[in-house]
Amino acid sequence: MSKSERPNQLFRNLNAKVASIPMVLTAVVIFVGGSAWTVLYSFTNSKLLPRLNFVGLDQYYRLWSTPRWLVSIENLLVYGVLSLVFSLVIGFILAALLDQKIRFEDTFRTIFLYPFALSFIVTGLVWQWLLNPEFGIQGVVRGLGWESFNFDPLYNSDIVIYGILIAALWQGTGLIMCLMLAGLRGIDEDIWKAARVDGIPTLKTYLFIIIPMMRPVFITALVIIAAGIVKVYDLVVAQTSGGPGIASEVPAKYVYDYMFFAQNLGQGFAASTMMLLSVVVVIVPWAYLEFGGKKRG
Amino acid sequence: MRYQFMTAALAVALPFAGPAAATDLEVTHWWTSGGEAAAVAEFAKAFDATGNHWVDGAIAGSGGTARPIMISRITGGDPMGATQFNHGRQAEELVQAGLMRDLTELATRDKWTEIVQPKSLLDGCTLDGKIYCVPVNIHSWQWLWLSNAAFEKAGVPVPKNWNEYVAAAPALEKAGIIPLAVGGQPWQSSGAFDVLLTAVGGTDAFLKVYRDKDAEFAAGPEVAKVFKAADDARKMAKNTNVQDWNQATNLVISGKAGGQIMGDWAQGEFRVAGQTAGKDYTCLPGLGLNEVIATGGDAFYFPLLQDAEKSKAQEALAETLLDPKTQVAFNLKKGSLPVRGDIDLEAANDCMKKGLDILAKGSVMPWTDQLLSQDTQKQKEDLFSEFFAKPDMTVEEAQKRFADIVASAD
């Protein structure tokens, strides 16, 4: 009687499994189901209302021959690469500086993190004013006497995307800094002592010992930044609404505009499928390396 | 705590859930600028007088922002009582999907076909022989608004047509005035081009491109002339750093800009600013080259509702909108032309009288809202907002892309 049978795997932790059913359903029905639906309808010529009238790859041909989409992709690449690099570099440097047992660390941390409390819409509006040639930075500097000072990125098609990048970095680096700081604090004090005993210079210690040890933190930061890059939309809407002309358009805005303004769901779905594809291309290899590797190890 | 929160939430929710006493009809529209709001208040007043209640659902941010909200409410099963659209093809699919109410019966009873002038207005509301909307005004795009003060300052006479205006541009620029104000919103540059197409190219050219979708013609020499004019406009507008159309109109009102190509809704702004047509500003229909009026405009559509009370209120609203007195009161404030030929606009100002004359002569044409799908319109907007913002985009390249859009237009 007392010989207990090995419990069925399915019923282990039954409570936890029951409790997670709603989330599983949400994930499957809304995320996976919704994505599949979108991909399916991207092969149709749906206009205002979804209709199953298949036209093959027509929407994709049109998408990739639309100048506005190409500009959007180019902007996303420029914005993405720069925002990734600068967020990580600035975030890490700020964190490393804060980690030097300085005074008023709390105050600085709060100041740097504070912009993150603002939504992208507010950030966008604030920077739209700051970068406005008449009222913003250019106006102030000219007022101080440098009459020829020129700084109006939002009104110049060639550099407008950098104006948006500045605002995004101002808003986002604080969070990355905090993540990095947490990572740095997680490093055992003994490692620093050992490095000092071995006479390794501080910079080298950071580059070759600390940063490799902080790999999980970097990966978390990377995922957070990357997700922010692909979905960038509200910042552009608030700062430039895609202008001047179409110089600061981004893919997410293309999707929205074509789905709702142009009443062309098929085209919008095709564009959003391309966005999904780009995320999948990045995430899948990473997830494979990260989680697949752990199981083996 | 939690229960308190629940009761509080319920207390907030209940008034909306309970039955309304008088029939409330929510009407959504995007009339939010000063002149527009004053005009729509006239409708509300007249509708309230019928014993019903107008629940105002104004959506700020122009049609481009408002339409997606309206459409998603109708398709999402939360229809309002009535909603504004530009008559034509904006609501086409909603009608095809059976989401809009068929007004034919009411229209026959009230003899709309006889009172609505010009007839092409009702065509924009008709699909498969059935009438689905009530046109309330005629708005035409083909106007050039000029600031008399700006030309005085520049020391040149106020131009009488587009060509004179282009010739006067250097003098304006020398006086520190922006020759032409074009706001940054995409529809403004695209609309300005369409006006140039009617004025410089002529009505036939416009119809050939947008109605017949003749891509070869769109790539040809006649349209090339229009692109040349658009290039002039682009150069004249290069210093406009505003977004909204009414901010651009404001530049003209304050004399900081020489002029603006904008529909007759701009007139409401001049009135709110207390300016007089002929004295403070000059208007040139058809840019002074081709005096026509496009029969675009606004109309009200009525979503199909289950509630019998509300359906009755919809009929009352439809009648109110076409009532001669409401038509006069509304259109005077809005600066648009009435949809009835049988009413007297005594109080109309100079510019409106010009418009009424053209209308009486029958020089009317359809506009892009009636001829092109929203999809094509959006592609056009993308092209022209890029063209106006990017000085190094050549005229040839723009025309080639324009012809491509026309070729794939529907």
From TrEMBL, chain A:
Q: Report TM segments.
A: 21-43, 76-98, 110-130, 159-184, 205-230, 269-289
Set out the biological process GO terms recorded for this chain's protein: transmembrane transport
Q: What Pfam families has UniProt attached to this entry?
A: BPD_transp_1
Main localization is membrane
Report domain ABC transmembrane type-1 positions. 73-288
Tell me if Mitochondrion is a UniProt keyword of this record. Answer: no
Where found, per UniProt?
Answer: Cell membrane
The cross-references to CDD domains, in alphabetical order and at most eight, read: TM_PBP2
| Highest taxon of the lineage | Bacteria
- The coiled-coil segments of this chain are none
Q: Which UniProt keywords apply?
A: Cell membrane, Membrane, Sugar transport, Transmembrane, Transmembrane helix, Transport
Task: Give the way it sits in the membrane.
Answer: Multi-pass membrane protein
- GO CC annotations on file: plasma membrane
Q: State the family named in the UniProt similarity comment for this chain.
A: Belongs to the binding-protein-dependent transport system permease family.
Which named protein is this? Permease of ABC sugar transporter
Organism from which the protein derives: Mesorhizobium prunaredense
TrEMBL record, chain B:
Location in the cell? Periplasm
What Pfam families does this protein map onto? SBP_bac_1
The reply to whether Cytoplasm figures as a keyword in the UniProt entry is no
Cellular component, GO annotation: periplasmic space
Q: Which SUPFAM superfamilies match?
A: Periplasmic binding protein-like II
Give the signal peptide as a residue range, or say none if absent: 1-22
> What InterPro entries does UniProt report for this protein, alphabetically?
Bact_solute-bd_prot1, SBP
Q: Which UniProt keywords apply?
A: Periplasm, Signal, Sugar transport, Transport
Known role: Part of a binding-protein-dependent transport system for a sugar.
Q: Which family does it belong to?
A: Belongs to the bacterial solute-binding protein 1 family.
Give the protein name, as stated in the record.
Answer: Probable sugar-binding periplasmic protein
